[in-house]
Amino acid sequence: MTAPFLTHSALKKAMRGFFTGPAELVFGEETAEAATTRFSATIDHLLGEHTDRNLLVITHGTVISLYLGRGARIDPYPLWEKLGLPSFAVVDRRTMRIEKFELQIA
């Protein structure tokens, strides 16, 4: 709600700061750390409720990059930078290993 409109280069710079300083409020309403915690809690809850099902989760590239970065132990910024619209990842729910990743569906 409060994030300003930024040029492409200013957005990339701000997002770099967002991902590299997860406890700092770079812009918007929450830190990267808070977004990761909020989203992870929701996914963990859903995985616990639906142990016998696959889940389809739709979200913004920022939070999925944070989540996959934490779970798969990869740097989330390059992942975010590569995401197209739309894109998807298939993740093993036990290991958090990314099994398939499509950066842009044409």
In short:
The protein is mostly helical and 106 residues long.
Features:
8% strand; 106 residues; single chain; mainly alpha; 47% helix
Ranges with pLDDT <50 over ≥5 residues? none
Number of helices: 4
What does the average pLDDT come to?
91
Range of strand content: 5-15%
- The computed structural class is mainly alpha
Q: So what's the overall shape? A: globular
How far the N terminus sits from the C terminus, by CA atoms, comes to 30 Å
Radius of gyration: 14 Å
The biggest sheet, with number of strands, parallel, antiparallel or mixed sense and barrel status, is:
2 strands, antiparallel
| DSSP strand count | 2
Secondary-structure element order, N to C? HHHHEE
How helical, in percent, are the residues? 40-55%
Placed side by side, the strands forming the largest sheet appear as 1-2
Could you characterize the architecture of this molecule?
The chain is mainly alpha-helical and 106 residues long. Helices cover 47% and strands 8% of the residues. The chain is built from four helices and two strands. The protein has helices at residues 8-20, 32-49, 61-72, 76-82, and strands spanning 88-91, 98-102. The protein has a two-stranded antiparallel sheet with strand order 1-2. The termini are far apart.
Write the layout of secondary structure elements.
Layout: H1 8-20, H2 32-49, H3 61-72, H4 76-82, E1 88-91, E2 98-102
Antiparallel strand pairs: 1-2
Helix pairs in contact: 2-3, 3-4
